[in-house]
């Protein structure tokens, strides 16, 4: 019985060690991908932040402007762009961003989803949500072309009044161990933000001297699609870095847990082996005593 127990323990040690090698390799791969994703993120952040500020300045410095991207509508249906990963093994990354989207959806009567990432697509498809579009196999290496395709679909839905509001749900990368799900309203443009109010105060002195050619409406018609593309691309880059950071932490934790489990199993094996040796000695001594 002791020998059988020892064989089982040795088999488990080999199995856990194999798993440990896999998680360690995935941790190293995620670390390399995270480094590249952070470099791209640092390059793109200033661009889409500048685009956002520019749009706010134009809208707040121009009084009485009427535009389909600015005028609020009666909210009958809200469209959500939800960015998840194509793969799992990244801790609570996918669950957290989906929960954030669902909690916001509870306040709405009708919703539809543009799913980015296989995990999000599968989740909303299984629950029979209205899917306006799906984009998979892009979460780890997003490009600006992907953002343009997503933005084109979202803007078209908004223009055709199939949705009355566009919300972007993604994960902001703060650090390797800290990622925060966020929701950003893309359309109609919300100029009631603190930044917009600050810009309005600054522009009081010279807004009347600003002019846009051929008109503010034409400028917005050109810039707003660029703004939406930039916001989506920025969110894709933030989510890509967050995914790799979450996966690296998850794989590091799994490797550490595997190491602890191997140590415990090795201790069990040593105890079983010691018990087996003790039993054999006892049997030998007992046999010798019986021969006397």
Briefly say what this structure is.
By secondary structure, the protein is an alpha/beta fold. The chain has helices spanning 2-61, 93-105, 118-126, 144-159, 194-203, 216-291; strands at residues 78-83, 111-116, 131-135, 165-175, 178-187.
Topology of this structure?
Elements: H1 2-61, E1 78-83, H2 93-105, E2 111-116, H3 118-126, E3 131-135, H4 144-159, E4 165-175, E5 178-187, H5 194-203, H6 216-291
Helix pairs in contact: 1-5, 1-6, 4-6
Task: Describe this protein with a few key phrases.
Helix Hairpins, 13% strand, single chain, 292 residues, alpha/beta, Pyruvate Kinase, Chain: A, domain 1
Strand content: 5-15%
Oligomer: single chain
- Secondary-structure element string: HEHEHEHEEHH
Number of domains: 2
- For the record, give the distance between the C-alpha atoms at the N and C termini, rounded to a whole number: 29 Å
Average predicted confidence as pLDDT: 86
CATH superfamily of the largest domain: ATP synthase, F1 complex, gamma subunit
CATH topology of the largest domain: Pyruvate Kinase, Chain: A, domain 1
Rg measurement, Å: 29 Å
| Low-pLDDT residue intervals, each spanning 5 or more residues | 203-207
CATH first level of the largest domain: Alpha Beta
Estimated helix fraction: 55-70%
Summed up, the helix count is 6
Number of strands: 5
